[in-house]
């Protein structure tokens, strides 16, 4: 079971707006608007820890982000296992099933669905609502008050993902362990049934029975304790749940925070105790990425820009083993932070270029609007804001992060229009109404 929704939602999160200054002397009217905007939008925080702004060398381009992992060990493990199966079957004189690739692909989707539904069914039995399922390119996910269903061709050869929605009634490792273990149990049962059918009826017409054995056996890979980027196999997750209580509580808190987001709760309203637990012992390396990215978004919604930058820095530092989709999300966020919080359009464009080199984004208009605002191109910024809003409406997203994005887009639009009005009034020879 994989825990991630970053690729599906976060690339369109809009950061807090500021009125950027053009190069050269700043307009007095813009300075006044900027000053009162900051005072108006900064809420009083009682009891929030006072932290000094830490250095963010990666975010500020003083250091390069960590180099991505090659994934060669994962490929090597699968090659070794495949070779062992072939050699063992040959030495024992066991006939292996036939593999018809064209038949195997749809059967693989069915096998992945059974595996992920096992997670969701066990979650339901332990009082966890179902929040969505991803099978290859097919995505069905709860988003606020409704469900969204779509097909992502870039994930057509991807694996699966189950999204449970646990409540906030306490963390019980046993409940989560049963939910995690149910996926491999479903795959073992499916593989056993397909193997019995193969032994009795052979490969079947077109090799469909033999191909079903190979398709269902893919789910057995979850029994190998291994990590791939920010994801862990079911066996690795079970081992942590059973042997590392502190890290387990942090992971369970992260799953519950994700559930709050799926139910439409805005980041600033996420349960503070859950967020604190999520950050308490997130593990090492890439396991820190998701908690710090979520904390970054929460701090943005709380208008705590300095702490938000610190969390984004930590997420970037942990991104070396993550996939292209996750790294692109982080790079787009880094571009917006540099544009809107640091008033550094050059650095923002560097991060945007890095994001575009990874793959074609689903949408880049939110980042483009931030850079346009930083450069004082308010007409362009308004066009990009409108395009971003249209993208969110088309995707019918209603999660907490989506609601947060809509509000920030409204505020960005207001900032742009006020800045354009201030510039028009500051120019000589322009007639002013009234």
Query: What's the total count of β strands?
Result: 6
What order do the strands of the largest sheet run in, or round the barrel if closed?
A: 3-2-1-4
Unreliable parts: 2-54
Assembly type of the chains comes to single chain
Strand content: 5-15%
Helix/strand/pairing category: alpha+beta
Shape designation: elongated
The SSE string, one letter per element, is HHHHEEEEHHEEHHHHHHHHHH
Please report the distance between the alpha carbons of the first and last residues.
64 Å
Description:
The protein is of the alpha+beta class. The protein has a domain at 98-238. The protein is 58% helix and 7% strand. It has 16 helices and 6 strands. It has helices at 6-9, 28-41, 72-92, 101-125, 173-201, 208-217, 234-243, 245-262, 272-280, 289-301, 305-317, 324-340, 345-358, 365-374, 378-395, 400-426, and strands at 129-135, 138-143, 146-151, 160-165, 227-228, 231-232. The strands form 2 sheets. The chain has a 4-stranded antiparallel β-sheet, with helices on both faces. Strand 2 and strand 3 form a beta hairpin. Helix 14 runs antiparallel to helix 15 (378-395). The longest helix has 29 residues, at 173-201. The radius of gyration is 25 Å and the shape is elongated. The chain starts with 5 loop residues before the first helix and ends in an 8-residue tail after the last helix. Mean pLDDT is 84; it is low at 2-54.
């Amino acid at each position: 079971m994989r825990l991630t929704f970053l690729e599906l939602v976060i690339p369109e999160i809009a950061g807090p707006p500021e009125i950027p200054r053009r190069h050269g002397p700043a307009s007095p009217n813009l300075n006044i608007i900027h000053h009162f905007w900051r005072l108006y939008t900064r809420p009083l925080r009682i009891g929030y820890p006072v932290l000094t702004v830490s250095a963010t060398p990666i975010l500020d381009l003083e250091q390069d982000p960590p180099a991505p992992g090659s994934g060669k060990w994962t490929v090597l493990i699968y090659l070794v296992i495949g070779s062992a199966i072939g050699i063992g079957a040959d030495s024992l004189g066991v006939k292996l099933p036939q593999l018809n690739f064209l038949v195997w692909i749809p059967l693989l989707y069915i096998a992945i669905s059974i595996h992920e539904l096992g997670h969701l069914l066990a979650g339901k039995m332990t009082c966890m609502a179902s929040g969505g399922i991803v099978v290859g390119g097919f995505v069905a996910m709860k988003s606020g008050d409704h469900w969204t269903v779509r097909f992502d061709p870039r994930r057509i050869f991807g694996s699966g993902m189950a999204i449970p929605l646990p409540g906030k009634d306490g963390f019980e490792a046993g409940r989560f362990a049963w939910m995690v273990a149910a996926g491999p149990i479903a795959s073992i049962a499916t593989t056993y049934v397909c193997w019995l059918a193969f032994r009795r009826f052979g490969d079947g017409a077109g090799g469909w029975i033999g191909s079903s054995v190979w398709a269902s056996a893919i789910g057995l890979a979850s029994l190998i304790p291994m990590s791939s980027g920010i994801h862990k196999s079911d066996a690795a997750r079970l081992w942590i749940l059973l042997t590392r209580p502190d890290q387990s509580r942090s992971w369970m808190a992260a799953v519950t925070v994700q559930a709050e987001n799926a139910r439409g709760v805005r980041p600033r309203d996420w349960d503070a105790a859950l967020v604190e637990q999520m950050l308490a012992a997130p593990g090492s390396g890439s396991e820190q990425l998701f908690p710090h990215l979520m904390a970054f978004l929460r701090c943005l919604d709380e208008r705590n820009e300095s702490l938000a930058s610190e969390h984004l820095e930590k997420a970037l530092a942990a991104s070396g083993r993550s996939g292209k989709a996750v790294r692109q999300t982080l790079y787009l966020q880094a571009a917006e932070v540099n544009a809107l919080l640091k008033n550094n359009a050059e650095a923002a464009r560097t991060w945007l270029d890095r994001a575009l080199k990874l793959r074609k984004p689903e949408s880049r208009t939110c980042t483009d609007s931030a850079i346009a605002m930083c450069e004082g191109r308010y007409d362009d910024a308004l066009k990009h804001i409108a395009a971003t809003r249209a993208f969110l409406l088309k995707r019918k997203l209603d999660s907490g992060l989506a609601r947060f994005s809509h509000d920030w887009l409204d505020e960005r639009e207001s900032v742009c229009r006020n800045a354009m009005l201030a510039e028009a009034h500051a120019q000589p020879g322009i007639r002013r109404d009234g």
